[in-house]
Design brief:
By secondary structure, this protein is an alpha+beta fold. The protein has three domains: 8-132, no CATH class; 154-266, 3-Layer(aba) Sandwich (Rossmann fold), CATH 3.40.50.10330; 288-435, Tumour Suppressor Smad4 (Sandwich), CATH 2.60.200. It is 46% helix and 22% strand. The chain is built from 14 helices and 15 strands. It has helices at residues 8-21, 26-56, 64-85, 87-106, 112-132, 174-180, 195-209, 219-231, 246-251, 256-265, 294-308, 310-324, 379-389, 411-414; strands at 159-164, 185-189, 212-217, 236-240, 268-278, 281-285, 288-292, 328-332, 335-346, 367-373, 398-403, 405-409, 417-419, 422-424, 429-442. Helix 6 (174-180) links the parallel strand 1 and strand 2. The longest helix has 31 residues, at 26-56. It is flat and about 75 Å long.
Length: 447
């Protein structure tokens, strides 16, 4: 009798579920994403091998050994990839991967040597993902150290917090914050209410009574609060509570409790703001500025990240936006350029390439610039090839550098720009630079 085992597709679904379950832990989420991506790569490789064998044996089904290799190598790849990001999670998955390998031996599907080869292949695929997606260890940024006195507010007394109910977080933050900081004044910005009006009212109250301004929401919400905090010289308490919380994470504030502890202890420091000026207007970005197809690339990646993993989803998104998008013609510091995208980060980002994910410092005074040139022959093909082969740093169509200032002319033809996920109309000329250590924030204790 033939024993029916779960197909690797079920494993992919399980991995996708793991990503969603573990989103509360950033390192575990990255482990699940890397594991899912490694499993997808193994699946593609083994399926490709099966098709080759099938064409050579047109009257027969692919050998059962191919399917067994699929399972064994896939389990090993997922466990090894998870261990690279989060050792404790990898250790928890190791017995499962080992059990699958042992089951293949007991079923007589493979010899011990073949099982070891499948395991080695899976582990090798997991290790190879580090070439495109470097490892990252959790921890607050280097600048996230107590360097500036800020008010210590026991139980949150003197803290006025604006909670954006439209920020997109699935877990309501208001109740948890009331338990953590019972004396804080929480202002709920309800659906349809103007966020900027609520923030201005909260800022006026802090100015009149003293204390600090707090905000619960994603990066766009925090950006709006940060501008008011800088203009009024107030310390800002950032509570992660949105769909995307990149700024809070780079501060080392991955939970509401971490931020609440910093407020009560009075630990603070200063960080840079990216600045955008043009036609008499001024705007700021905490994280990123971009033009061209970069916003579409991010959206395409995020739409498939939980099912494919970060690197495969990024590869898919890159091919899609380059096929459907169009380059923009601008002038950078007096030099005409045709670009597929321009990315500018507030301080240097890691890793290199198209998936900047985190910053080790937020006060280096630099803009992280990444450009894709569209003027070279076969630029799209060369770019995708370089990305897939891990040779992006040596590609002539891609460039990474840092600067303290960048002037962009011709923005009227390029259209809109994006800052911290928000789209804004662009004047014909923009200047990007930094306001060094302009924003005072509450920071977690050093690890």
């Amino acid at each position: 009798m033939r024993t029916h085992e779960p197909r690797l597709g079920a494993g992919t679904q399980l991995a996708s579920s793991a990503v969603k379950v573990l989103t509360g832990d950033r390192s575990a989420r990255r482990a699940a994403l890397r594991g899912t991506g490694s499993l997808a790569l193994v699946s593609a490789a083994v399926r490709g091998a099966g098709k080759v064998l099938d064409t050579r044996r047109p009257l027969r089904h692919p050998p059962s050994g191919v399917v067994s290799s699929h399972r064994t190598a896939g389990a090993a790849a997922f466990a090894a990839a998870a261990a690279l990001e989060t050792p404790w999670l990898g250790a928890a998955l190791l017995p499962l991967a080992g059990g699958i390998a042992v089951s293949r031996l007991r079923a007589g599907a493979h010899t011990p040597g073949r099982v070891l080869a499948d395991v080695a292949f899976g582990v090798g695929v997991a290790a190879a993902t580090c070439r495109w997606w470097p490892l990252h260890r959790d921890g607050p940024a280097d600048s996230a150290r107590p360097t500036l006195p800020v008010p210590a507010l026991p139980s949150g007394e003197g803290l006025v917090v604006v909670v954006n109910s439209d920020a997109g977080d699935d877990v309501p933050a208001e109740g948890e914050l009331r338990a953590l900081l019972p004396k804080a004044d929480l202002r709920l910005c309800a659906a349809g209410e103007d966020l900027h009006t609520v923030l201005r009212q909260a800022t006026a109250q802090v100015q009149a009574r003293g204390g600090a301004l707090g905000v619960v929401g994603g990066d766009g919400t925090v950006n709006a609060a940060a501008v008011l905090a800088v203009d009024n010289r107030l310390p800002l308490a950032v509570f992660p509570g949105g769909t995307l919380n990149h700024f809070a994470a780079d501060l080392g504030l991955s939970t509401l409790k971490a931020a609440a502890d910093a407020v009560e202890a009075g630990r603070g420091g200063t960080v840079d703001l990216g600045r955008i000026t043009g036609d008499g207007t001024c705007a700021y970005f905490l994280n990123t500025f971009s033009i061209g197809v970069y916003p579409e690339l991010v959206r395409a990646r995020e739409a498939r990240e939980t099912t494919l993993g970060k690197w495969p989803a990024l590869a898919f998104g890159l091919a899609r936006v380059l096929a459907d998008g169009a380059p923009v013609d601008v002038t950078l510091d007096g030099r005409p350029r045709r670009l597929w995208l321009l990315f500018a980060g507030n301080s240097r980002y890691d890793p290199p390439g198209f998936a900047p994910s985190y910053r080790s410092t937020l006060d280096d005074g630099l803009l992280d610039l990444r450009l894709v040139d569209a003027k070279h022959p076969f630029a799209r093909t060369r770019l995708i090839t370089a990305f897939l082969t891990g040779t992006l740093a040596r590609s002539r169509v891609y460039r990474e550098t840092t600067a303290t200032r960048l002037r962009i002319d011709g923005m009227g033809k390029a259209g809109d720009y994006t800052r911290d996920g928000e789209v804004s109309p662009a004047p014909d000329t923009l200047v990007l630079d930094k306001r060094g250590r302009a924003l005072t924030v509450y920071l977690p204790a050093p690890p």
